[in-house]
């Protein structure tokens, strides 16, 4: 996710608690979606879609933080 911001992501994960929380939640949702799609965890189509939408919202929030941080760097 966002390879062009790899260094900034590493920095923010250690200096910005909010960013770290969003990043961790995004990764948790990603794994949860993979488990649902692989039928490791039972889920309806609607639950999978809701998780994907939540993950996308988090990704948008992370991107906004990265853009703002890179503009001030």
What do these coordinates show?
It is a single chain. The protein is elongated, with a radius of gyration of 14 Å. The model has no long low-confidence stretch (mean pLDDT about 95). It is built from three helices and no strands. The two termini are about 20 Å apart. It has about 70 residues and is mostly helical. About 80% of the residues lie in helices and about 0% in strands. The relative contact order is 0.18.
Quick structural overview:
With 73 residues, the protein is an all-alpha fold.
Oligomer: single chain
Structural class: mainly alpha
Let me know the average pLDDT.
96
What proportion of the residues is helical, as a percent range?
over 70%
Radius of gyration: 14 Å
Number of strands: 0
Continuous helix count: 3
Low-confidence stretches: none
Descriptive key words:
single chain; 73 residues; mainly alpha
Summarize the helices and strands and which ones pair or pack:
Blueprint (H helix, E strand, L loop, with lengths): L5 H10 L1 H21 L7 H28 L1
Helix pairs in contact: 1-2, 2-3
């Amino acid at each position: 996710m966002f390879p062009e911001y790899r260094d900034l992501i590493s920095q923010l994960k250690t200096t910005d608690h909010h960013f770290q929380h969003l990043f961790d939640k995004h990764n948790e949702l990603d794994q949860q979606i993979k488990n649902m799609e692989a039928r490791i965890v039972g889920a309806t189509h609607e639950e999978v879609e809701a998780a994907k939408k939540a993950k996308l919202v988090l990704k948008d929030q992370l991107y906004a933080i990265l853009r703002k941080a890179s503009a001030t760097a």
